[in-house]
Amino acid sequence: MGGGRQAMTDGKIWLQRHGRLLLFVLLLAAIEASYVFIVTAGRFTFWPTWNTNYDLLAEGFRSGHLYLARAPDPALLAKANPFDPRWRSLWFWDASLYGDHYYLYWGPLPAVAIAIVKTMFRIRGTVGDQFPLFAGYTIYLVAGALLIARLSRRLFDGVPAWLTGLCIAVFAWANPTPYLIATPGIYEAAIAGGQAFLVLGLLLAFESIWRDDDRARRRLLVAAGLSWGFAFACRASAILPAAIFAALTALAVSPPAPWPRAWRAPLRPALWTGGPIAAVVVAHLAYNRLRFDAWLDFGLGRQLSTMQFRTAPGYLLPNLYSYLLRPLYPSCRFPFLSPQANLVTFPSWFTVPGGYAAPEPVAGLINATPWVMLAGFAVVMVVVMCRQAVRAPRLVVDDRRFRANLWCGVVFLVLGTVTGLPEITEFFASMRFLADVAGGLVLAGAWAACLLYVRVRDQPWPGGVATAVIVALGAASIATGLLLGVQGYDLMFQNHNPQLFARWVRMFSRC
């Protein structure tokens, strides 16, 4: 009996010490299992394949060249203008054609990883693009969850475990993450890779702010810079936020000293983060030069597609409307909500400029991911903290928590805005482009939710209202994201597991 009581006592002590960690691990395991469930349409052992583009490039690398392991049709090469849409039946869609070879305009890092894995483990089969997409979202999940857990513990006193868990669940399941996992093609995989390494770099940079040991801090800064460089090697547009992150992190790690030495303190950490980014960028530009005989040619202008990318200032407003306000269409049949394509999704009073198209379904963030409304509070708090920093400069230098708090608010908002700038004046909106900004806005919302909670929790009426609002926004975002994850661009469950989908329709439909 004595031994049993002691064992129970030891178990209770262990749970008290490690209970939060156990809940964190269980939550991540459940989310990861849900990702597998979605990407396999509920089958787990069979992974539907959309594209094998990265594998074709990986096989090209393994054969000692930079072009795809697929040759263009000789009939296409014989045409005076092989890019003419009349010859689309001969195209390898969206590949970049140069000379007698196909290339990819997507970044090469996932293909490099596939080539290494296939060589190390002697894999002979084809690796579909669903696998790099899943790997990207796994990195995204783990890095984002760790970042949320650590900022909630270090920046705020007494944030309850349920709020941390809610923020992680929203980050994992809010639209468009499940929607893209349900459409595991190369388009989505490239974005997943870029987002994964941007968020991983933020986690490493956040850790560096808390380290006093110069060697440990330097290692973290180098790792953060390398991660942001890898983001660029997945998706070239990631270079914009990566450069800003490097500068902001240098300022947060080493706040400026008094003038005239103000510029020197952040210089060294900027070099530690900027160096790896610059190295990856130079390597990618050399890769471009070897492929297309031009350093800055990424192959986008050589793609075989009828949707050649074009931008115009007049497309800004319809894209802002699409990404923020495009409605979801309700139904009494499961899965109840669906995004719609075509121009009828715009209200009658909205003037759509000529040349603008709506070929793809999009769900506006306010409707599908209402959690991002908390990012508005984050903007207000960043402005307030910047004013405090201007009025009391010593606060930035002496208070690490203040500095890290301000860094979090700013970098999350940068991730939620700057990352989407290349697409904001495109001639169409896309759910996958929404993924470039949604993660940052969700993180900004998580930071704001923790900040709001600790400020009003001791006030009965405001505290209760704030808690209810946070829970309602989180629950609505999770539920909508998962319902959209049943669909994806191509109705994942309906097409790849029709029996399960039909059972859900019978069980849950209200008509």
Describe this structure in words.
The protein has 511 residues and is mainly alpha-helical. It has one domain. It has 20 helices and four strands. The protein has a two-stranded antiparallel sheet with strand order 1-2. It has a two-stranded antiparallel sheet with strand order 3-4. Strand 3 and strand 4 form a beta hairpin. Helix 14 (374-391) packs across helix 17 (431-456) and helix 16 packs antiparallel against helix 17. The longest helix is centred in the first third of the chain and has 38 residues, at 2-39. The protein is globular, with a radius of gyration of 24 Å. The termini are far apart. The model has no long low-confidence stretch (mean pLDDT 94).
Task: Record keyword descriptors for this entry.
511 residues, mainly alpha, two-stranded antiparallel ribbon, two-stranded antiparallel sheet, 20 helices
Number of helices: 20
The structural class is: mainly alpha
Strand order of the largest sheet: 1-2
- Tell how many strands the DSSP assignment holds: 4
Helix content: 55-70%
Estimate the global geometry from the Cα principal axes.
globular
